Amino acid sequence: MKKEQTIYIIGAGISGLIAAYELERAGFSPIILEASDGVGGRVRTDEFKGFLLDRGFQVLLTAYPEAQRYLDYEALHLKNFEPGALILKPGDAFSISDPLRNPGQTLSMAFSPVGSLFDKIKIYQLTQSLKQKTEEEIFSEKSTTTFQFLKDYGFSDKIINNFFKPFFRGIFLENELSTSSRMFKFVFKMFSQGFAAVPEKGMQAIPEQLKEKLTKSQIRLNTPVKQVEYGKIYLSSGDVLEADSIIIASRPDRILPQLQGQFKPSRKVVNMYFSIEHSFIAQPKIALVTDDQFLINNLVFMTDVSSAYSQNNKALLSVSITKPVEVDDKLAKLVAIELSALTKISAEFFEHVKTYIIENALPDVDDMAYSLAAGNTKVSDGVFLAGDYMLNGSINAAMTAGRKAAEAVISSYQTVH
């Protein structure tokens, strides 16, 4: 096999980094072109005003098979969220625990007002049935909406509104639970088999660890690509690069003329950070806001999960808004008022740190899948695609897609030579 082939990877997100790693293992030395100033794509962390701010509330599900394949969890110093959630309502708050993980909470969970005892039995049954299925089996099942699946499974409106809606709105970034039931079952299984976690020093530690695994790849930052055509890469700078193979590990419709208009708009989220002297939750748990009148969908004190998110001894609160909202100077004040209504802490104590408007937070995928044949990543001679948009919106899918694209490139050279 010739190893001096010129292989370019466009995008240094999770998919692009995995593709580079797999190509290196096969003896190649790819060149990664990244438009921004760092690796990670949508998985980035900023240092700002003495805090670590993930660009959007993100977690790693430790049960992800691909993450277990590629990541050294111990080196990431993962900090786990406590299973379950806190339900916040004006003048009321109660916890949902996972009695399978925390037997001491069994009694309190049985009497929790989140849903009926029948609902809790149903959760147990669903958890057990999903544990018996492989990921491939889950994604081969008939697809309906998550909302319809929950109704058909027998869950009450109470637990759907109190738990499933706010919890999975924050994951799927859409408000009607219209996401495929395949994705719901996959994520539910991942939560039941592992933990939601963040690296001690922010989510960007994940792509940074992947970058450190690369020893023969070149990474060219601040190098946006304008177009790809016939084995040539046209950079925004005006330079033209010739390539034997190209893996597009970013939105391909923006640089491949034949794919323009082929993709649905990505799902959006607004992520706001506030600081306060002390956490009013005081446990590494996500809090859900069930009242549809509120802008806030979910919130979490990142410093309850990992104290390293703050270098100034203040608590760091992450707030996610999944509703369409106008981001202006008034928004931070409105959210602070909502926080006050939920906690009875005066709004003035919530100091706005930063707001992220994340336009491309998740791909909107119609026919969700768990994996794909390597050959299906090929879009034309010498051009291959990689990204979670090919499967489902998750770190696991991004890794799978990167691996499959690399396998297709490797196979193309084995076939020729």
TrEMBL record:
It comes from Cecembia lonarensis (strain CCUG 58316 / KCTC 22772 / LW9). Gene3D superfamilies: FAD/NAD(P)-binding domain. It holds the Pfam family Amino_oxidase. InterPro entries: Amino_oxidase, FAD/NAD-bd_sf. Residues 14-410 form the Amine oxidase domain. GO terms for molecular function: oxidoreductase activity. SUPFAM superfamilies: FAD/NAD(P)-binding domain. This is Protoporphyrinogen oxidase. Coiled coil: none annotated. It comes from the Bacteria.
